[in-house]
Amino acid sequence: MEKQVVDGLREVFQSGRSRPLQYRKQQLRALLRLITERHADIEQALKQDLNRSMHGTSLFELIGIENDIKVAEREMTEWAAPRPVKKNLNSALDDVYVKPEPLGVVLIIGTWNYPWAMIFQPLVGAIAAGNAAVVKPSELSEHSSRLMKELLPLYLDKEMYQVVTGGVPETQELLKQRFDHIFYTGSSTVGKLVMEAASRHLTPVTLELGGKSPCYIDKNCDIAVACRRITWGKFANCGQTCIAPDYILCEPSIQDRIVEEIQKTLLEFYQTDPKSSPDYCRIINTRHFDRVLALMNECTIALGGENDRSQCYIAPTVLKDVLPHFKIMQEEIFGPLLPIVTVNGLSEAINFINAREKPLALYVFSSDKTVIKRMLKETTSGGVTVNDVLMHYTVDTLPFGGVGNSGMGRYHGKHTFDQLSHHRACLIKSFAMESLNDARYPPLTTARLRKAKFFMGHRMCSCNGMCVWAVIATVLAIGLLVGLLVVLI
Amino acid sequence: MEGQKQVLERLRGAFRSGVTLPVHFRLTQLEAMMSLFEDNETQILEALHEDLAKPKFETVLSEIDIVVNDICYNISNLQTWMQPSYVGTNLATKLDDCFVRREPLGVVLIIGAWNYPIQLILSPLIGAIAAGNCAILKPSEISKATEKLLAELIPKYLSQECYAVVCGGAEETKTLLENRFDHIFYTGSQSVARCVLQAAAVHLTPVTLELGGKCPCLIYGRLDMKAAAKRLVWAKFFNSGQSCVAPDYVLCTDEVKDMLLPFMKEALESFYGSEPQESPDYGRIVTDRHWDRLIELMKRSEGKIVIGGESVKETRYIAPTVIVDVKGTDALMQEEIFGPILPILTIKSLDEGINFINEKEKALALYAFSDESQVVTTVLERTSSGGFCSNDGIVHMTLPGLPFGGVGASGMGNCHGRWGFETFSHKRGCMLRGWGLERVNVLRYPPYTESNLSWLRWATTAKKKGWGGCSLM
Asked: One of this protein's GO BP terms (chain A) (predicted)?
């Protein structure tokens, strides 16, 4: 079945239907209509999957997708146009440019925490770049998955874009097929399997994975504001966000203040009983519930800790004095537990971060520019937000992606278009100027070699380009001198 | 003798110390690479002559100058490339700084190939150094003299802390690939590429693969036959056909073929004389095994040899050879030729040629020869390939402004010029927010309300071109 789907899509792709920009824009507009006309159904599905509130869904998924569609539709012509590049003397009369082209059939594997955004945002880029696509939503967010399978063929060209649902066996079967690009969002463990499957067909991949995103709070900062922003980013979607601040690093002297500020903020956001707040989500299923709960075992609970397995509810929880060897510090939490690990200053925080895998996001809160500068310079991560959390994700002109264990490749806005395109180097020559070409033909003579080097080269003499100006300046100076002499004599 | 693991640990330690980060260090290393070429031109010429009987002319153009040009290009532009690039923001994020930092990846592995043993390993190294990485070079063991030369010269000119050469064959490469790198750059064959990609998957290491394929050359419509023949012949028989971007086979009509052949003979004679075997400007096949493979292909072909065909085993010589009346099922059409044998297949129409190309895997390069721009445009629009050049061969890869890389079976990723720097960098998206405007942030906090949502929507939608869209405050 999966093979038929892919073969069918490839045939339609090869017919050239998705080449004209008009077609791609039409499909994007249809996708926008899907969101705007069916948002109530989408909100309902997410409520059932994650107990996400209607506003939460708009805020965290739909507005982002809508924006991406509008930007892609508006800027597609520019993105898809040939991009001229620098020439050398030899190619001065030629057309030299990079031409973005579709890859073919791309596979987009989504995940359950933001089931619509994690599929539709890459899909927007896939459509804009002129590809066909197979979309595989996560079976864990089953209501969203079912709804997506029903809605997509109603709005998009179902011969060019198809939804395949199912669990692990269906995904494995899909991964045996040959795609021209695989875009996977999920865990590092499965990411390795996706890359390994892709290797058999030499298929390039984009992997949006995760990791433990550290959050350093410097003692020189507005701790109250910092904690509000962190609380928002950590407990949205019940902590199930790949770029949620995973753990806090701070000096012992401010740990209690941080707990206090988070407590105040939680009251403001979710009132006294987060379980009855419409804005507080649930863990996706009991397996993850058990996993997250077990992470609390060795820890000292500073706030929260309440839970209810029947509802997959875990209260917003803060854990203090967490030690590096605790289980909670060995894996990505992906839940509403916020451990605080104390360190003695910035250098120790930097070393702590660098001793671990490169994270998808890194956060630093400080009013001191030197602290920020050091943190940026001495660490690496997929992306960074300073003095806030999550926000770098929201600016579509910034490339979003991981590095090392947190992934490879990047997307959002034009970056998705570029990621799912082939950048074809083009040199358009005519038959003219054949005498210039003579320089490169055998038999070798010194004169020919000198001529070939000259026309191929980029430097006039030495490499910093200063020489060119030195020559021009010398010529001018000599000219002036001669002129002066003529005048005087 | 240092083992592979120790080399890797040493380089990792050097990278962690931050020594490669300052622009001054990177420029010094690039300048040292330049000196390596300036001081050792004779040795390079000799090594390449020993490995491939590579003529001086070819070595200078395709192994020395092309790399030196890229070094210069990098030196001139590195400071600019290293600057953070600021991106457009929208109303909601106008007071924030949003920029992209280019950061080194760490320790990278560059695996070279034997056909351009200097260029294919040092050209990626330029990008790796410019981007601030440490690197392990694994030259091809098939081009032995060059391997030995690189092992001697690299530690002499470049920082031994940060760059190392590891020599060996298939076994050593396999062991090397079990280690964890931050990027692997491989040039070579598809079958080995699969193994490289599989080994990389274990550690989630990103890869660049520069592979090959059968680069088609479609010749159609009105043409300057003489110039076309010269350029085609030059591109095909350079390095005795052992170039990943050599035109592998020609597609043209019978009429074009009949007109082209005499010009091709003329071009060959002007290049290599009446006896290419005696020309100092014509190369040889790299090993006996590769020579045997090519002779076997010629034997099994059902086409007719109209130019060349002569060969001498002792010197691994194969004459520049053109074979006509070749069909799609011929032995010569089943694998990348990688030698001085040029099959010509006849087509009746442009469509037939394009369909033939599209039924095969995407190649590293595709060539269209025609004086009619409509023909060139049609071929360009209806096919795909790593790179494309009209009315010439190979030269598109000499422009550092153009990315050099494949697509589909011919590879992934690219290098040359700034593209190399970008390949070996991580583009880190950064946002610096201020402490003010917390009252505005309130719009995004729970308890969520309808009115907050609509304000947010208004403030964050991308309204103007060039302004970044922002999905929430």
From this structure: glucose homeostasis
Alpha helices for B206-349 (secondary structure H): 225-237, 254-272, 288-300
Same domain? For B229 and B168 the reply is: no
B376–A399 C-beta distance less than 8 A: no
SS3 B162: coil
pLDDT at residue A381 greater than cutoff 80: yes
- Cβ contacts of B445 on chain A, cutoff 8 Å: 228, 232, 268-269
What are the tens digits of pLDDT across the range B353-385?
999 999 999 999 999 999 999 999 999 999 999
In a domain, B404, yes or no: no
Q: Of B234, B412, B446, which is closest to A269 when you measure between CB atoms?
A: B446
Distance CA(A153)–CA(A130), nearest Å, equals: 18
Q: What is the DSSP string of B57-126?
A: HHHIIIIIIHHHHHHHHHHHHHHHHHSPEE----GGGTTSEEEEEEEE-SEEEEE--SSSTTHHHHHHHH
- Cα angle vertex A413, ends A410, A418, to 5°? 55
Which residues does residue B101 pair with via DSSP β-bridges, in sequence order? B428
CB contact under 8 A, A71 and B194: no
Among all residues of B, which ones are annotated catalytic?
A: 210, 244
Cβ within 8 Å, pair A463-B71: yes
A·B CB contacts under 8 A: 343
Q: What is the pLDDT of residues B228-261, one digit of tens each?
A: 999 999 999 999 999 999 999 999 999 999 999 9
Residue B462's pLDDT band (cuts 50, 70, 90): low
Q: Closest partner residue to B429 among A98, A399, A449, by Cβ?
A: A399
A40-55 tens-digit pLDDT:
999 999 999 999 988 8
Range of the domain at B53: 4-212+414-426
Residue B465 has pLDDT above 60, yes or no: no
Please count the structural domains in chain B: 2
DSSP string computed for A238-297: GG--TTS--EEEE-GGGHHHHHHHHHHHHHHHH-S-GGG-TT----SSHHHHHHHHHTTT
If asked whether residues B188 and B291 sit together in one domain, one would say no
- Rg for chain B (alpha carbons), in Å? 26
User: Does the beta carbon of B440 lie under 8 angstroms from any beta carbon of chain A?
Assistant: no
Which of B400, B446, B453 faces A58 most closely, judged by CB atoms?
Answer: B453
Is the model's pLDDT at B159 over the cut of 50? Answer: yes
Q: Which residues of B touch A199 (CB under 8 A)?
A: 194, 197-198, 200-201
User: What confidence tens digit (pLDDT) does each residue in A174-184 have?
Assistant: 999 999 999 99
Is residue A457 very low, low, confident or very high in pLDDT (cuts 50, 70, 90)?
A: low
Between the alpha carbon of residue B185 and those of residues A198, B102, B208, B364, the distances in Å are: 17, 19, 5, 16
- Closest CB to A202: pick one of B93, B194, B376: B194
- Assess whether B189 and B301 both reside in one domain: no
How distant is the Cα of B435 from the closest Cα of chain A, in angstroms? 7
Residue A358 clears pLDDT 60, i.e. is over it: yes
Q: Do B384 and A394 touch (CB under 8 A)?
A: no
Q: Say which CATH number the domain at B228 has.
A: 3.40.309.10
From A215, A227, A238, A242, active-site residue? A242
Interface membership of B103 toward A (CB under 8 Å): yes
Q: Is the CB of B278 inside 8 Å of chain A's CB atoms?
A: no
Which among A246, A242, A248, A245 has a CA at the least distance from the CA of A401? A242
Q: Rounded to two decimals, what is the model's pTM?
A: 0.94
| CATH number of domain containing B167 | 3.40.605.10
Q: Is B116 left (phi over 0), alpha (psi -120 to 50) or beta?
A: beta
Q: Report the gap between the CA of B168 and the closest CA in chain A (Å).
A: 24
The CA angle B97-B98-B104, to the nearest 5 degrees, is 120
Radius of gyration of chain A (CA): 28
